[in-house]
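Risk register update: the risk that structure generation would not scale has been downgraded. Supporting records follow, first protein first.
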Amino acid sequence: MTFDQLMALVGEKDTQTLQFPESWTQGRTAFGGLSCAFALQSMLLHCHDERTLRSFSAQFVGPIAPDEPFTLSFNLLREGKNSSQYAATITQHNQVCLTVQGLFAKDRASIVEVPYAQLQGKQAPNAEQCLPFVQGVMPNFFQYVDLNLVAGGMPYSPAKPLT
């Protein structure tokens, strides 16, 4: 299953049962980005106005086994005129596996300007520099990610680090 297909499984219910395939594991658990994405998607589906994610905190409590059902629970902690605070929890076999908290807020006018960091000189991905997925050597979820070597030596090689 692709990432988009997995995210499409998440609905607006406060509690839902989901599962993911073994191909999305990192060791014996879900790739952390995937489990957080499930939780964030449930929050995004509940946030129905122009509020933007401002803060996100995740605690990886225990492993989430693949090919087995788990429960994703959404909770509205507080909602005000300008912000909403949500929490989501993933449990499996009556054990907490992941807990997250997110703060969504509206843009507000201010005389204070904080410039966003600019990414300078980032090269476009080059298909010739993409690392192929090697089963048994790389975590399984790497098959869904384009790893693009931009500079330096191959990962885990004796190449000297960039300075």
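Supporting record for the second protein:
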Amino acid sequence: MSSLLTIEGVSKSFSGSQILRDFNLTVEPSEIISLLGPSGCGKSTLLRLVAGLDPVHQGQIKVKDLPITAPGRQVGLMFQEPRLFPWLNVRDNVAFGLAPSRKDTKDKFVAELLAEVGLTEAADLLPRQLSGGMAQRVALARALAGEPEVLLLDEPFSALDAFNRMRLQDLVLKIWQDYRPTMLMVTHDIEEALYLSDRVVVLGEKPAGVREIIEVKLPRPRNRSDAHLVKLRSQLLTELV
């Protein structure tokens, strides 16, 4: 199986300070990868590079062997905050990211996405009328609307309470089962990383590279209290301390 996303020898500096050094990672089709590491080590910077938001770096980032040099539909990004357009209702926020090829099926596809994230009844609401969890579900639907081959998630649940965070984690897995996107996620939550991911990539202090890769060889759905996950959690804590 050929890799869908390839990050080869990527280094990045800001104002003379090196953030990433010789970062290498390959991600297979439909794989879910979590990035864990100390605060400020460059996890979110790496996502920006993969999204094409910052083309100034050393090394190559490719999706299906095509270099990423600018933002494009092959890569979608969900931020820490929903970043919804306040003047658009839920339906139109989701529709904003649609691919041109969906022009003739726009209404049907948006309705499918809203049903997928459980927001059919909220389609006419404005962002100010939504709870935090609802707003993040809209942001997730909008990220999917472009039908990206790679979906990047930058700590998308960090601002939510524990109950809503777990609900959205399960929603992400449902969407993954239905659409099979390749996902690369930044998180500080070890349990979240182990619950969602096929592999957890541990970054070191900056300038960051890959320090360790831990495979989670458990079928989905997973039991959050599974003994194997508890053992891997202890291993990750050792790596991160």
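The first strand starts at residue 5 and ends at 14. On this basis the risk owner (M.S.) recommends closing the item.
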